[in-house]
Amino acid sequence: MKRPTLPWMLALMAMIAVLFIVNLLIGSVKIPVADICRILTGSHENEIWQNIIMKSRVPQALTAVMAGAGLAVSGLQMQTVFRNPLAGPSVLGISNGASLGVALVVLLSGNLGGVALSQLGYLGDAAMSVAAIIGSLAVMALIVWVSQKVKGNVTLLIIGVMIGYLATAIIGVLKFFSPEEDVKAFVVWGLGSFSRVSGDQMILFVVLMAILLPLNCLLVKTMNLLLLGDGYARNLGLNIRRSRLLVIGGSGILVAIVTAYCGPIMFIGLAVPHLCRAIFRTSDHRVLMPGTALTGAALALLCNLIARMPGFEGALPVNSVTALVGAPVIASVLFRRRKDDFQE
Q: I need a labelling partner for 189 at 20 to 30 A (CA). Which of 129, 157, 170, 236 fits?
C-alpha cells in the first residue's frame, strides 16, 4: 500500500537539517552552539574556530549532501534502466574509469616525472580531480557507443562489468611498478572522503550538482515508461534507445563528478533506492526521484558524522562507514518486505 508522500518528504528534510547541524557540532574540537551561530553569521573573532567550521565542517557537510543525493539518484536510474536490483552507479565501470584516470596520473607521476603527485598539495588534488573526470567520461563515452550497437540491457551490463575488470587489471599493473608513496596516495583516494572538497572546489562541486540533479529529474516520465517494459513503452511512443542513452548518460555524469571530487563512494547508490522504495512503497519515479535524493543526502551526512566521531584519530574511510551503516538497514528492509509478501 502506497504511503502518503508529503509527511515522509518533510521528515527526510527535517532529518537532513538536523544531521547537517550535528555535523557542524561534533568533531575532535568541541565548539559551543552559540559560537557556531556567530561564526556562521560572521560575527565571531576566534580565527581557529572559524577555520574549523567554515573551511572543514561546512564544506564536508555540503559535499556529503550533494554526493549522497547524486549517487542515490544515479543508482535509481541504473536499477530502472537495467531492471536489476543489484545495479548501481559503478555497474558500468564508470567508477573504475575514474580510478583508472587517477591511477594513470598518480602512479605514473613518480615513474615518469620523478615527483610524487601526492607531494604537490592543491596542484596534485586538482590533477587527480581532472584525471577522474576524464577517466569517467571516457568510459561513459565508450558505454554510450556500445549501447548504440547492442540491443539488450543484459549485454550492455556484461560489457560494462568487463570494462570495470579491465580497468582494475590495469590499475593492478600500475601499482606493481609504482613508488610506495604514490601507491599510498592512490589507496587513500580510493577509500573515499567528503573532506577533500573545500574552497573554490566545494563551490564548483555544489553548483554542478545543483544543476545536474534537477536535469536528471526531468527524466522521471521516461523512467516510468521504461518500467512498463520495452514493448509497452515503444507502443506509447517512447524511443527506447534514445531514452536508455539519456538515462545512462545522466547517471554516468553524476557518478563521474562525485567520484572526481570525493573518490569512489560505494554502497549508497545501490542501497538507497531499495530503502526509498520501502519507505514510500511505490515505484512511481515522481516520488522516488526526490525521495531517493533526500534519503541519499541524509545517509551520507550520517556516515560522515560517524567517520568524524570523537575518539577516532583523524577520520574513518567513508566506504567502511557506508557499508557498516547501510548493510544492516537494507537487510532488515528486504527481510521485512519478504515477510510482508509471505503474509499477503
A: 157
CB of 243 closer than 8 Å to CB of 230: no
Count the Cβ atoms, other than its own, within 10 Å of residue 3. 12
**DSSP states along 286-316:** HHHHHHHHHHHHHHHHHHHHHHT-TTSSS--
Is residue 229 within 8 A of residue 60, CB to CB? The reply is no
Residue showing cell 564508470: 94
**Helix axes 199-217 and 58-82, enclosed angle (nearest 10):** 30
Q: Are the CB atoms for 265 and 318 separated by under 8 Å?
A: yes
Residue 342 has pLDDT above 50, yes or no: no
CA terminus-to-terminus distance, the chain? 12
Residue 194: name the closest of 24, 317, 48, 72 by CA. 317
Cα distances from 262 to residues 36, 71, 158, 178, 298, in angstroms, run: 26, 11, 26, 23, 17
Return the pLDDT at 68.
94
Distance CA 30, CA 28 (A): 6
- The answer for 173, left when phi > 0, alpha when psi is -120 to 50, beta otherwise, is alpha
In the predicted model, is pLDDT for residue 343 greater than 50? no
E strand spans, the chain: none
Give dist(CA 115, CA 121) in Å, integer: 12
Tens digit of pLDDT for each residue in 115-165?
Answer: 555 555 556 667 777 888 888 888 878 877 887 777 667 777 788 888 888
Within 10 angstroms of residue 304's Cβ, the number of other Cβ atoms is 27
Q: Which of 267, 249, 273 is nearest to 73 (CA)?
A: 273
311: left (phi over 0), alpha (psi -120 to 50) or beta: left
Q: Record the cell numbers describing residue 290, joined without a space.
A: 526526490
Per-residue pLDDT tens over the stretch 92-103: 788 888 888 888
Residue written as grid cell 535524493:
293
Task: Identify the pLDDT of residue 66.
Answer: 94
Q: pLDDT tens digit string along 190-200?
A: 888 888 777 77
Q: Is the Cβ–Cβ distance between 227 and 108 less than 8 Å? A: no
